Amino acid sequence: MNGWRLIWARLLLGLGLALAPVSLVPTAGAQTWGPWPTFQINPLVIELFTSQGCHSCPPADMELEQLADMPGVLGLSFHVDYWDYIGWRDPFASESATHRQKYYRHVLAKRYIFTPQFVVGGSWSPDGRTSLLDLDLMSYKGDPLMFKTDQDWIYLPETRTLNGIADLWLVHFDHRHETHIKSGENAGRTLAYRHVVRDIKHLGDWRGERRRIAWPPRIGYGIALLVQHRGDGTILASIAHMQ
C-alpha cells in the first residue's frame, strides 16, 4: 500500500486537568510550546503490543511500519515488559505498556494477554491470522467526536451521548528505531520499530462537558491526544502531530 507520512503536532494540559503521569521511557528532546504547526484530527488509532524478546513479533512490527505510513492512520508501538526475563531486556519495554494491554484484556474480554496483539480504535483486536493490511481499515473508524482548535486551545464539544467516563491520554512517540538483539528468542537479528511510545500521561477524566485543553508542548518526534471511553475502550477522538 502506498502511504504518506502524517505530519503532526503537540499538546499541553489545560484548565483544571490533573496531570497524573503514567511513565514509560522518558522522551528525549527539547520542548516546543505553542499550537502545533500541522496536525491531523481523528486518525484511526492502531496499537501494537510487542516485545523484542518475542519470536513471533517481528512480522507484526513490520506490518505496523507499513500501517504507520498510511493516510488516516496513527500506528503506535507499545513494548511490554513481561518478556524481559527470557534472556533479553527490551530497552523500550515498560510496566505501563503492559498495564495498558491488561486494560484491553478486560474491556475486550480476552482470556489472557499475548504478543503480538493489535488493537484497532480501542475496541477491536483481530486474531493472529488477520492482516490489517488486507482490510478496509476506515470501516473501523466509527463516528468520532470532532475536535475544534484555535491558536490557544483544543476544544472538546459537549455531548449527551458519552454514557460514562472518558480518559484523556497524552502520548509521545519516536519516529523509528533499529536494535541489534544479542540474546533471547530473536538473538542475532537487527529489528526495526516504528512509532515506539516513550511516554503516556493521563490528563484527567471527561464526562461529556464542553472542555478546552491548551496545546501541549511538542517533545521529540510525535505527540497525540486520545479521548478513550473507559468502559469499552473505544477511542472517541484523537489529534496528532509528527515532525
Task: Give the structure's gist in a few sentences.
Helix content is 9%, strand content 33%.
What are the key terms here?
243 residues; mainly beta; six-stranded antiparallel β-sheet; three-stranded mixed β-sheet; 2 helices; 16 strands; 9% helix; globular; disordered N terminus
- How many domains in all? 1
Strand ordering within the main sheet: 1-12-9-15-16-3
On the 0 to 100 scale, the average pLDDT is 87
Could you estimate the helical fraction of the residues in percent? Answer: under 10%
How many H/I helical runs? 2
Distance between the termini: 22 Å
Q: For the CA atoms, what is the radius of gyration?
A: 17 Å
Number of separate strands: 16
| Main sheet makeup | 6 strands, antiparallel
Poorly predicted sequence stretches spanning 5 or more consecutive residues: 1-28
Question: Would you give an account of this structure?
Answer:
With 243 residues, the protein is mainly beta. The model is unreliable at 1-28 (pLDDT under 50). The strands form 5 sheets. A 6-stranded antiparallel beta sheet has the order 1-12-9-15-16-3, with no helix packed on it. It has helices spanning 58-67, 95-107; strands at residues 20-22, 31-32, 40-41, 44-50, 73-79, 117-120, 148-149, 153-156, 166-173, 176-180, 190-194, 197-206, 211-214, 218-219, 222-229, 235-242. The chain is globular.
Give the topology.
Blueprint: E1 20-22, E2 31-32, E3 40-41, E4 44-50, H1 58-67, E5 73-79, H2 95-107, E6 117-120, E7 148-149, E8 153-156, E9 166-173, E10 176-180, E11 190-194, E12 197-206, E13 211-214, E14 218-219, E15 222-229, E16 235-242
Parallel strand pairs: 4-5
Antiparallel strand pairs: 1-12, 2-14, 3-16, 4-6, 7-8, 8-13, 9-12, 9-15, 10-11, 15-16
